[in-house]
Amino acid sequence: ERLVILDTDPGIDDAMALLFLGGQPNIRLLAITSIFGNAEIDVTTRNALYLSQRFGIDAPVYRGAAMPLSIARHPSPRHVHGDDGLGGIDAVGDFTGEAAPGEASERMIELIRANPGKVTILALAPLTNLALALVREPEIAHQVKEVVIMGGAFGWAGKRGNVSPVAEANIFNDPHAADFVFNAVWPVTAIGLDVTSQCVLTSKQAAELADRGGEAGKFLWEISRGYEDVYRRSQGVDGCCLHDVAAAAWLTHPTLFRTQTGPIRVLTEGIAIGQTIQKPDDQVFGASAWDGLPSQSVCVAVDHARLIHTYTQAL
Ligand code: BDR
Ligand code: CA
Questions:
Q1: Which ligand 1 atom is at minimum distance from the Cα of 124?
Q2: How far is the CA of 11 from the centre of ligand 2 (A)?
């Protein structure tokens, strides 16, 4: 059984990942921590509460950061996730939930300390909460089992950014936090656009989910109508990318992926801000700025057909 803290900004693909994880027998969600990103923090927190209540996911929701560490907040991507962060269909209605008492990064620290060596953090959003937890309690870097991140665009599979030619949204939204998290001594696995952009749920598969995936399948189909349009118009894809689901699948089906190790840095200023670069461990330079940085894992290939099949079957 894996003990998981889910850090998330729901978010359509975040909702898809949450409903997948909620049904996995070997995953125990210790907490859901919210964060700004696909919408403002009030909205993502409310969405996390709504999703857990409606779909019977038994984990406290703690409210996290509203702003990145150093840069100004980029506007929410309403054109992708809707005004309500869940496809703009007002599924949440007048639901108002109360987050559990306590601030996300502090609760993260407590949960990690209470379960040393056992907690996996699955981060599907800007990395601000994780960075704040590390600043408050650097020791947690030695106590976490694994940090799994949906984020980055490393260029290994020819794929570059989705919010700039080189940057992926979660990293772009807080590049300083990301650079800090990648360079702490905890073991990180990054699942970036290199692989997640291959994980397309076709419109036909989405329709099948709506027909045969019960209440969850129908809900996911409803919230992803506009999201599919975005992919159709911007990339000519007949379907939508399950970015956050791909990262969740790393926890349950790691053999679907191939990884490469090496230190990671994030550009924190200039035209390429938010770009993620990995130096493979087997690439050796003379004395270089990469020396002494912790080696982390990046997913470079995925069996996307099996991943999508696994997802639809699980739902
Ligand atoms: C990531 O950014 C967010 O919009 C998605 O939820 C996903 O986590 C993809 O770049
Ligand atoms: Ca997300």
A1: 8
A2: 6
